[in-house]
Amino acid sequence: MEYLIQFQYKGEGDLRPMDYAVNDEEILAPDGKTVPIPNVGDSVTLTSGGTPKSYKVVTRHFGYAGNHCYINIVVTDISDKDRAARLKE
Question: What is the enclosing helix (H) or strand (E) of 83?
Answer without folding.
Answer: helix 80-86
